Amino acid sequence: MNAAASTVLLTGGCGFIGSHQAVVLLESGHDVVLVDDLSNARADVVDRIEAIAGRRPRFIELDVRRTDAMADVIGDHGVGAIIHFAGLKHVRESMERSIDYFDVNLAGLTSVVRAAERCGVRRLIFSSSGSIYGTAGALVGGAPIVEETMPNPTNPYSHSKWICEQVLERICGVEAGWSVIALRYFNPAGAHPSAMLGEDPTNLISNLVPVLMEAAAGAIDAVPIFGADFDTPDGTALRDYVHVMDVARAHAAALTAVDTAGGFEALNIGRGEGVSVRQLITAAEVAVGRPLAVDVQPRRAGDVPSLVAATDRARKRLDLDDYLPVETILADAWRFRQRRDRPLG
Length: 345
Hints:
By secondary structure, the chain is an alpha/beta fold. Helix content is 41%, strand content 18%.
């Protein structure tokens, strides 16, 4: 299969990362098919993708757990590779809806794999998460976490991602012809530089960068800080924030790598730099041009002090250039938030 000319299926393709991925792939010459049930995304994203890329992806509204329908999509559109984004993704929500998280994330993956197998498609990029490492950050003293580190997920969301990786690794070990790369990205954030695409869920807003933008826009009174007593330099949790466009470029590079790799491999996607909650708030204040009120609250169940990626393997394997800085992440996110309440076309 020639990766440069293939048709790529993006499950969850109308979501935050999926929509940016569609733009990058369309601009690089791929044909793109989006599947999304719109449970946490907006249908008009397809119009915005077309406006940016100058080409329109094909879109099918569908729950990926419908295996027969997924097989029809893969076969009818000549799909050659799949990037599987679809799933539930909020740590806090997963503590309250654990069964839903295991159902949607595990059954969704196995359905996509079964449908792909029927159609002879065995190239897949899996949207994993650095959160699968869990308490490993504390065990290594806050140092960047390498891919060989044994995952120790602390919540149903990250646990479901880890189980999905294990399923894919076993499939690659016993089923001939499968080639899978799991990208463990840490904290994707930001927005497309056009400000036409960004993080805009239809239900729960829980990731810190969009919460900061909501506070800057006056939609919420204060930025919640969940825990100010971690064993970190300023007491707040350290995370590795990576621009969504860098994440999309990593997936595009992985499509080329997976075409010849064979078997299963996992790669961290992050900047390799820990930024505390307080540091991110300070940087956001610069980006939006005003101070933001904060509300210090107790730690959330499942949160860990530090999660920072070791990035050497991904940089070499995927030939990635330098990642965009945190300042660009916040500036792009703010432009998107300012434009969001106006027509985005």
